[in-house]
Write the C-alpha coordinates for this entry.
Amino acid sequence: MIQRKLPTKSPRFDFERDEMIALIRQRGIEDERLLKAMMLVDRREFVQAALLNRAYDDCALPIGHSQTISQPYTVAFMTEALEVKPGKKILEIGTGSGYQAALLSAMGARVYTIERNMDLLNGARKIFEHLKYNIVSKCGDGTIGWKEFAPYDGVIVTAGAPEAPQPLLDQLAEGGILVIPVGDKEIQSIQITRRLGEKFQTREAHGFKFVPLIGKIGWK
Ligand code: SAM
Protein backbone atom coordinates (compact mmCIF):
# COMPACT_ATOMS: atom_id res chain seq x y z
CA MET A 1 0.00 0.00 0.00
CA ILE A 2 1.28 3.45 -0.80
CA GLN A 3 1.06 6.73 1.02
CA ARG A 4 -0.87 9.00 -1.27
CA LYS A 5 -2.42 12.43 -1.14
CA LEU A 6 -6.15 11.96 -1.53
CA PRO A 7 -8.36 14.96 -2.23
CA THR A 8 -10.19 15.66 1.04
CA LYS A 9 -13.25 16.82 -0.87
CA SER A 10 -14.50 15.09 -3.96
CA PRO A 11 -18.25 15.14 -4.73
CA ARG A 12 -18.09 11.76 -6.44
CA PHE A 13 -16.27 10.00 -3.60
CA ASP A 14 -18.38 11.78 -0.96
CA PHE A 15 -21.47 10.46 -2.72
CA GLU A 16 -20.14 6.91 -2.94
CA ARG A 17 -19.04 6.93 0.74
CA ASP A 18 -22.49 8.22 1.79
CA GLU A 19 -24.08 5.44 -0.24
CA MET A 20 -21.84 2.84 1.45
CA ILE A 21 -22.86 4.10 4.91
CA ALA A 22 -26.55 4.23 3.92
CA LEU A 23 -26.37 0.60 2.77
CA ILE A 24 -24.71 -0.51 6.01
CA ARG A 25 -27.35 1.37 8.01
CA GLN A 26 -30.10 -0.22 5.90
CA ARG A 27 -28.68 -3.68 6.67
CA GLY A 28 -29.24 -3.05 10.39
CA ILE A 29 -26.11 -1.41 11.82
CA GLU A 30 -27.24 1.12 14.43
CA ASP A 31 -24.10 2.16 16.36
CA GLU A 32 -23.84 5.85 15.46
CA ARG A 33 -20.25 6.14 16.76
CA LEU A 34 -19.25 3.30 14.45
CA LEU A 35 -21.08 4.81 11.46
CA LYS A 36 -19.41 8.16 12.15
CA ALA A 37 -15.97 6.48 12.32
CA MET A 38 -16.72 4.75 9.00
CA MET A 39 -17.38 8.20 7.51
CA LEU A 40 -14.07 9.50 8.90
CA VAL A 41 -11.70 6.61 8.16
CA ASP A 42 -11.28 6.78 4.41
CA ARG A 43 -11.25 3.25 2.96
CA ARG A 44 -9.45 4.69 -0.10
CA GLU A 45 -6.29 4.99 2.04
CA PHE A 46 -6.24 1.22 2.55
CA VAL A 47 -6.95 -0.17 -0.93
CA GLN A 48 -4.50 -0.68 -3.79
CA ALA A 49 -4.07 2.32 -6.11
CA ALA A 50 -5.61 0.40 -9.03
CA LEU A 51 -8.78 -0.19 -6.98
CA LEU A 52 -9.35 3.37 -5.73
CA ASN A 53 -12.51 3.62 -7.82
CA ARG A 54 -13.96 0.63 -5.99
CA ALA A 55 -12.94 1.68 -2.47
CA TYR A 56 -16.54 2.26 -1.33
CA ASP A 57 -18.02 -0.84 -2.99
CA ASP A 58 -19.59 -3.09 -0.37
CA CYS A 59 -17.28 -5.99 -1.14
CA ALA A 60 -13.91 -7.42 -0.12
CA LEU A 61 -11.00 -6.25 -2.31
CA PRO A 62 -7.55 -7.81 -2.86
CA ILE A 63 -4.61 -6.29 -0.95
CA GLY A 64 -1.86 -8.62 -2.24
CA HIS A 65 -0.44 -11.92 -0.90
CA SER A 66 -3.85 -13.55 -1.66
CA GLN A 67 -5.41 -11.54 1.20
CA THR A 68 -8.28 -9.05 1.26
CA ILE A 69 -9.59 -5.95 2.94
CA SER A 70 -12.94 -7.17 4.27
CA GLN A 71 -16.37 -6.09 3.00
CA PRO A 72 -17.47 -2.85 4.73
CA TYR A 73 -20.74 -4.39 5.96
CA THR A 74 -18.84 -7.31 7.52
CA VAL A 75 -16.40 -4.89 9.17
CA ALA A 76 -19.36 -2.92 10.54
CA PHE A 77 -21.16 -6.06 11.76
CA MET A 78 -18.11 -7.39 13.60
CA THR A 79 -17.19 -4.00 15.06
CA GLU A 80 -20.71 -3.40 16.35
CA ALA A 81 -20.64 -6.85 17.98
CA LEU A 82 -17.42 -5.88 19.81
CA GLU A 83 -19.25 -3.06 21.69
CA VAL A 84 -16.25 -0.70 21.32
CA LYS A 85 -16.08 2.20 23.79
CA PRO A 86 -13.37 4.88 24.13
CA GLY A 87 -10.44 3.62 26.20
CA LYS A 88 -11.29 -0.09 25.76
CA LYS A 89 -8.40 -2.37 24.93
CA ILE A 90 -8.93 -4.32 21.70
CA LEU A 91 -6.76 -7.01 20.11
CA GLU A 92 -7.16 -7.58 16.37
CA ILE A 93 -5.83 -10.73 14.68
CA GLY A 94 -5.17 -10.16 10.96
CA THR A 95 -4.04 -6.55 10.41
CA GLY A 96 -4.15 -6.91 6.60
CA SER A 97 -4.53 -3.42 5.09
CA GLY A 98 -4.90 -1.81 8.54
CA TYR A 99 -8.45 -0.54 7.87
CA GLN A 100 -10.16 -2.42 10.73
CA ALA A 101 -7.48 -1.37 13.22
CA ALA A 102 -7.74 2.26 12.08
CA LEU A 103 -11.51 2.15 12.51
CA LEU A 104 -11.19 0.79 16.06
CA SER A 105 -8.63 3.47 16.85
CA ALA A 106 -10.89 6.20 15.41
CA MET A 107 -13.60 4.96 17.82
CA GLY A 108 -11.25 5.66 20.71
CA ALA A 109 -10.12 2.08 21.44
CA ARG A 110 -6.54 1.22 22.45
CA VAL A 111 -5.64 -1.08 19.58
CA TYR A 112 -3.19 -4.00 19.42
CA THR A 113 -2.96 -5.88 16.13
CA ILE A 114 -1.09 -8.96 14.90
CA GLU A 115 -0.40 -9.89 11.27
CA ARG A 116 1.48 -13.00 10.11
CA ASN A 117 2.59 -11.48 6.79
CA MET A 118 5.47 -9.02 7.26
CA ASP A 119 4.90 -7.22 3.93
CA LEU A 120 1.26 -6.52 4.74
CA LEU A 121 2.17 -5.41 8.24
CA ASN A 122 4.80 -3.01 6.91
CA GLY A 123 2.23 -1.53 4.52
CA ALA A 124 -0.30 -1.06 7.32
CA ARG A 125 2.34 0.45 9.62
CA LYS A 126 3.20 3.06 6.99
CA ILE A 127 -0.45 4.09 6.77
CA PHE A 128 -0.79 4.21 10.59
CA GLU A 129 2.24 6.48 10.73
CA HIS A 130 1.11 8.65 7.83
CA LEU A 131 -2.39 9.12 9.30
CA LYS A 132 -1.06 9.35 12.89
CA TYR A 133 -2.88 6.36 14.33
CA ASN A 134 -1.44 5.20 17.63
CA ILE A 135 -1.70 1.43 17.06
CA VAL A 136 0.58 -1.23 18.57
CA SER A 137 1.40 -4.00 16.10
CA LYS A 138 3.57 -7.06 15.68
CA CYS A 139 4.27 -9.76 13.13
CA GLY A 140 3.38 -13.23 14.40
CA ASP A 141 0.82 -15.97 14.84
CA GLY A 142 -2.30 -14.36 16.31
CA THR A 143 -3.94 -17.69 17.14
CA ILE A 144 -1.99 -17.68 20.41
CA GLY A 145 -3.00 -14.09 21.20
CA TRP A 146 -0.71 -11.47 22.76
CA LYS A 147 -0.30 -12.35 26.43
CA GLU A 148 1.91 -9.38 27.23
CA PHE A 149 -0.96 -6.88 26.96
CA ALA A 150 -3.86 -9.15 28.06
CA PRO A 151 -6.58 -9.03 29.27
CA TYR A 152 -8.54 -7.43 26.42
CA ASP A 153 -12.03 -5.95 26.47
CA GLY A 154 -12.44 -7.23 22.93
CA VAL A 155 -10.68 -9.56 20.51
CA ILE A 156 -11.57 -9.48 16.82
CA VAL A 157 -10.28 -12.08 14.38
CA THR A 158 -10.53 -11.07 10.72
CA ALA A 159 -9.74 -14.47 9.17
CA GLY A 160 -11.81 -17.68 9.27
CA ALA A 161 -10.87 -20.30 11.87
CA PRO A 162 -11.80 -23.97 12.34
CA GLU A 163 -12.63 -23.11 15.98
CA ALA A 164 -12.21 -20.25 18.47
CA PRO A 165 -8.60 -20.53 19.77
CA GLN A 166 -8.64 -21.08 23.56
CA PRO A 167 -5.79 -18.56 24.20
CA LEU A 168 -7.98 -15.79 22.71
CA LEU A 169 -10.83 -16.73 25.07
CA ASP A 170 -8.41 -16.95 28.00
CA GLN A 171 -7.05 -13.45 27.23
CA LEU A 172 -10.51 -11.81 27.49
CA ALA A 173 -11.20 -9.55 30.45
CA GLU A 174 -14.34 -10.12 32.55
CA GLY A 175 -17.29 -9.17 30.28
CA GLY A 176 -14.91 -9.09 27.28
CA ILE A 177 -16.08 -10.16 23.83
CA LEU A 178 -14.42 -12.36 21.17
CA VAL A 179 -15.69 -11.91 17.59
CA ILE A 180 -14.43 -14.60 15.21
CA PRO A 181 -15.53 -16.26 11.97
CA VAL A 182 -15.67 -20.04 12.51
CA GLY A 183 -16.44 -22.79 10.00
CA ASP A 184 -14.86 -24.71 7.16
CA LYS A 185 -12.67 -23.04 4.54
CA GLU A 186 -15.66 -22.25 2.26
CA ILE A 187 -18.16 -20.62 4.59
CA GLN A 188 -18.16 -19.37 8.17
CA SER A 189 -20.47 -18.11 10.90
CA ILE A 190 -19.41 -15.16 12.99
CA GLN A 191 -19.25 -16.31 16.62
CA ILE A 192 -19.70 -13.64 19.28
CA THR A 193 -18.62 -14.89 22.69
CA ARG A 194 -18.77 -12.96 25.95
CA ARG A 195 -16.74 -13.97 29.00
CA LEU A 196 -18.80 -14.14 32.19
CA GLY A 197 -16.50 -15.28 34.99
CA GLU A 198 -15.34 -18.76 34.08
CA LYS A 199 -18.24 -19.18 31.63
CA PHE A 200 -18.57 -18.16 27.97
CA GLN A 201 -21.86 -17.16 26.32
CA THR A 202 -21.94 -17.50 22.52
CA ARG A 203 -24.27 -16.40 19.72
CA GLU A 204 -23.74 -16.82 15.98
CA ALA A 205 -24.56 -15.09 12.70
CA HIS A 206 -24.38 -17.23 9.56
CA GLY A 207 -23.17 -16.87 6.01
CA PHE A 208 -19.83 -15.04 5.91
CA LYS A 209 -16.73 -15.74 3.83
CA PHE A 210 -13.16 -15.02 5.01
CA VAL A 211 -9.61 -15.92 4.03
CA PRO A 212 -8.25 -18.66 6.36
CA LEU A 213 -6.67 -18.04 9.76
CA ILE A 214 -3.37 -19.90 9.47
CA GLY A 215 -1.46 -20.81 12.61
CA LYS A 216 -0.82 -23.07 15.56
CA ILE A 217 -4.52 -23.13 16.55
CA GLY A 218 -5.86 -22.32 13.08
CA TRP A 219 -5.63 -23.93 9.64
CA LYS A 220 -2.24 -25.53 8.85
N1 SAM B 1 -8.49 -6.69 9.07
C1 SAM B 1 -7.97 -6.60 7.74
C2 SAM B 1 -8.21 -5.27 7.10
O1 SAM B 1 -8.84 -4.40 7.73
O2 SAM B 1 -7.73 -5.09 5.98
C3 SAM B 1 -8.48 -7.72 6.86
C4 SAM B 1 -7.59 -8.86 6.96
S1 SAM B 1 -7.66 -10.21 5.87
C5 SAM B 1 -9.36 -10.56 5.65
C6 SAM B 1 -7.09 -11.45 7.04
C7 SAM B 1 -5.65 -11.27 7.46
O3 SAM B 1 -5.36 -12.23 8.47
C8 SAM B 1 -4.63 -11.49 6.35
O4 SAM B 1 -3.83 -10.34 6.21
C9 SAM B 1 -3.80 -12.69 6.84
O5 SAM B 1 -2.43 -12.62 6.48
C10 SAM B 1 -4.00 -12.58 8.35
N2 SAM B 1 -3.78 -13.83 9.11
C11 SAM B 1 -4.14 -15.09 8.80
N3 SAM B 1 -3.78 -15.92 9.80
C12 SAM B 1 -3.19 -15.17 10.76
C13 SAM B 1 -2.60 -15.45 12.04
N4 SAM B 1 -2.56 -16.68 12.56
N5 SAM B 1 -2.09 -14.42 12.75
C14 SAM B 1 -2.11 -13.15 12.26
N6 SAM B 1 -2.64 -12.83 11.06
C15 SAM B 1 -3.18 -13.83 10.32
Summary: The first helix runs from residue 11 to 26. The CA atoms of residues 18 and 39 lie 8 Å apart. The mean pLDDT is 95.
